[in-house]
Every structure is written in structure tokens, then in C-alpha cells.
């Protein structure tokens, strides 16, 4: 029963969790600027440590390095306790905010610190001379102090898992509108994770209680429970990372879409020779690329401010409405495109327009102007009508 080679392999869950931790690089500096994301990183580090140190080869290594038989047992139990504690705080922070989590942190830290201290005290008092790599829980289930050690870590782990699971499922079925999308997916995975954690504890306790009553159900502790724990670890990594990485992916898609949306305006200014370039600093991600393009376009439009014709803006808006453009963004986009292209043609003229348009009218509509540039027929129609109305006004004045 107690073998170094015959065991549920936690290396794959550990590798998955480590890969999930590395995936935080997708959020780059914003990961470390966000306390919730930093907490997720710390929690995943604990999860990786649990999966690494729970494997029999690592258990043997810890025992050999320290020279104390079975010292790996309280060490693994401590990691499990800290991980369950971290999960509880993380869910509270997600659901009720970091301020609420900080208020809960005080008394929960005291409770779980006491549990960790008790684990090591009980191990020091217990007589566990025979190294048990896989079945420490059941082999020493009736040994004084070791028995209490085993029950304490399982109860502490189960208590945190039960409370956390209750918070997750109540949040999922609360009917609140903010629980949707990536957060909903992450919470569903965490709900499965904590359900499996409870299964892990029930299986372990069942095997221990069976030992107390003279029965042998060790396979529940050495086979079934580790399988539940391995799947739970994978769901934990997915559950905590999915909302953050999913939202970041969604934000990057939006940034790329906004970047592409500005392309016609960027190209117009570039072909006119007025586009101000921002210095490149290597390959830019979606957010940086959008910032550079938006900044270059805005700075170029600011340089055209003296040539933006307020009278043309008013006429173009009116003509766009007559042309059937919807009021608001679509009509303003067509009017802005007419004014901007006219300004490009008028730059360098000896006399700028009599009434200059407030440049913020253009800067506030850059995406809509870029959209209008994709509709050359509608833009040309509005431009011709503006020219015709100008000619009619001049003829009437004469």
C-alpha cells in the first residue's frame, strides 16, 4: 500500500497550475498593480506547492533532507490549510470587495495561524517513527496526537471548503446581474473545485473513522481522495484565472477593434503628410498600439485646429441629416470628416476660416469620423451639398 511509485500523479495538476501562473504575464504590469490579481498569484503559488509536495518522491525528499521521518506530513497539511484559507479570503474579496476581505483577514488569520501551530505541536508530540509515504493518515489514525493532527487538518480544510463553497454557490444563484460572463464561468469552476475539496475530506475522514472501528477502507484515502484533489486543483486554477484572463482577453479584443476602427483616419492623415509619429519601443501589445495610434491622430488633429471651419461644421451636420444620416454619432462623423478633409486642403492658406471650430468637437468624434471615411459615397454627397449651399449663399449675398 505504501509505495513511492504507485500513486496518483499530481505532477500534471502542478504543471497546469504553474502554466496558469505564467499566463498572468498576459496582464503584464497591470497584474501586479491590482491587489486582487496579486492575491490570485499568491494563491496559485500555494496550489502549485501543494501539488508538488504531496507527491511521494517529494515526501521522501523532505523527510530525507530534514532527517525527520514523516515531517512532510505536517508540512503538506500546513500548505493545504493555508491554501484553503487563501481561497476563502479570495472569494470574500471577489464578492464583497477588498475592504471586506481585510476586515475578515484579522480573525481568520488568527484562527488558521492557531491551526498551523497546533499541527506542528501535535506532530512533535506524536510518535510516528515509521515513514509512511502514501498512507500516513490511515496508518497513524489511532496513534495518540497523530490522530488529532490528522483530524484537525481535515476539519480545518473541510470548514474552509464548506464556507467557501457556500459563498460561491449562493453568489452563483443570487440572481445578481453582475454574476455573468467570465466571472460566472470562473465561479462555476470554483464551485466544482470546492465540491471536490469536500469530497476529498469526506473520503479521508471515512477511511480514518473506518480505522478507528477496525475496518480497512484505506483505498478511499490513498486512491479516491487524491483523484478528487487532483481534479480540484485543476478547477481551482481555471476558476481563479478565467475571470481575469478572460476579461483581459476581451479588453484586448476591444483595443484591437478600436485600433482597426481608427485605420482610415490614420491613413488619411499619413497620406496628407501631417501624421505625427510616436517613437516605437519594440513590438507593442494591443493596448499600447491603440494608445500610440490614438495619440498620433489626436496630436495631428490639434495641429490642424486653426483650419477647422465652424461654419462648414454646421452646414455639414445639416446636410448629413438631410442625406439621411442618423442624428448623433453618424451625422457628426460625416460632418467631422468633411471639416477635417477641408482643413487638410486649407492648411498653409494665407487666411484661415473666419470662425475656427473648437477642436474638441473633432477630437471627441474621431472613431465616428474614421467610420465616415469608410463611406466615401455618403461623404462625397455631403461635401458636394455643402459646396452647393455655400455657392447658393454667396450668390444670394451678391
Average pLDDT metric: 83
Q: Tell me the structural class.
A: mainly alpha
Number of helical segments?
A: 17
Question: What string, H for helix and E for strand, traces the elements in order?
Answer: HHHHHHHHHHHHHHHHH
Strand content: under 5%
**What is the domain tally?**
2
Kindly, what is the distance between the CA atoms of the first and last residues, rounded to a whole number of angstroms? 107 Å
Give helix % range.
Answer: over 70%
Oligomer state equals: single chain
Number of strands: 0
Largest sheet: none
Instruction: Estimate the global geometry from the Cα principal axes.
Output: rod-shaped
Uncertain regions spanning at least 5 consecutive residues: 394-398
What is Rg?
33 Å
How would you describe what is shown here?
It comes from Streptomyces desertarenae. This is DUF6545 domain-containing protein. Keywords: Membrane, Transmembrane, Transmembrane helix. Pfam families: DUF6545. This protein is an all-alpha fold. It has 2 domains: 249 residues, no CATH class; 112 residues, no CATH class. 75% of the residues lie in helices and 0% in strands. The chain contains 17 helices and no strands. It is rod-shaped, with a radius of gyration of 33 Å. The N and C termini lie far apart (107 Å). 40% of the residues are buried. The C terminus is likely disordered.
Amino acid at each position: 500500500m505504501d509505495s513511492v511509485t504507485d500513486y496518483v500523479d499530481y505532477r500534471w495538476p502542478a504543471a497546469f497550475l504553474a502554466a496558469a501562473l505564467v499566463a498572468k504575464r498576459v496582464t503584464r504590469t497591470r497584474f501586479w498593480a491590482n491587489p486582487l490579481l496579486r492575491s490570485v498569484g499568491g494563491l496559485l503559488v500555494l496550489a502549485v506547492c501543494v501539488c508538488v509536495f504531496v507527491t511521494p518522491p517529494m515526501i521522501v525528499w523532505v523527510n530525507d533532507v530534514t532527517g525527520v521521518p514523516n515531517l512532510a506530513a505536517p508540512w503538506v497539511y500546513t500548505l493545504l490549510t493555508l491554501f484553503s484559507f487563501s481561497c476563502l479570503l479570495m472569494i470574500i474579496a471577489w464578492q464583497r470587495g477588498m475592504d471586506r476581505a481585510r476586515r475578515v483577514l484579522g480573525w481568520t488569520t488568527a484562527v488558521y495561524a492557531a491551526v498551523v501551530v497546533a499541527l506542528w505541536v501535535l506532530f512533535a508530540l506524536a510518535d510516528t517513527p515509521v515513514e509512511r509515504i502514501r498512507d500516513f493518515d490511515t496508518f497513524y489514525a489511532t496513534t495518540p496526537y497523530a490522530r488529532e493532527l490528522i483530524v484537525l487538518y481535515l476539519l480545518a480544510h473541510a470548514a474552509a471548503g464548506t464556507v467557501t463553497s457556500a459563498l460561491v454557490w449562493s453568489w452563483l444563484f443570487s440572481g445578481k446581474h453582475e454574476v455573468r460572463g467570465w466571472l460566472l464561468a470562473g465561479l462555476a469552476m470554483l464551485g466544482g473545485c470546492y465540491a471536490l475539496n469536500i469530497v476529498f475530506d469526506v473520503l479521508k475522514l471515512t477511511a480514518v473513522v473506518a480505522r478507528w472501528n477496525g475496518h480497512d477502507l484505506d483505498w478511499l484515502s490513498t486512491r479516491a481522495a487524491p483523484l478528487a484533489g487532483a481534479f480540484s486543483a485543476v478547477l481551482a486554477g481555471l476558476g481563479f484565472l478565467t475571470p481575469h484572463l478572460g476579461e483581459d482577453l476581451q479588453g484586448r479584443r476591444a483595443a484591437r477593434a478600436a485600433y482597426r476602427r481608427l485605420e482610415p483616419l490614420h491613413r488619411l492623415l499619413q497620406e496628407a503628410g501631417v501624421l505625427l509619429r510616436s517613437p516605437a519601443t519594440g513590438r507593442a501589445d494591443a493596448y499600447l498600439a491603440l494608445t500610440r495610434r490614438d495619440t498620433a491622430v489626436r496630436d495631428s488633429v490639434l495641429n490642424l485646429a486653426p483650419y477647422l471651419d465652424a461654419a462648414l461644421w454646421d452646414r455639414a451636420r445639416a446636410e448629413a441629416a438631410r442625406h439621411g444620416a442618423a442624428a448623433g454619432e453618424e451625422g457628426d462623423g460625416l460632418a467631422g470628416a468633411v471639416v477635417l478633409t477641408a482643413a487638410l486642403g486649407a492648411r498653409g492658406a494665407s487666411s484661415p476660416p473666419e470662425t475656427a471650430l473648437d477642436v474638441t468637437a473633432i477630437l471627441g468624434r474621431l472613431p465616428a469620423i474614421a467610420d465616415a471615411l469608410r463611406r466615401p459615397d455618403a461623404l462625397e454627397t455631403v461635401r458636394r451639398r455643402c459646396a452647393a449651399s455655400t455657392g447658393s449663399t454667396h450668390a444670394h449675398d451678391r
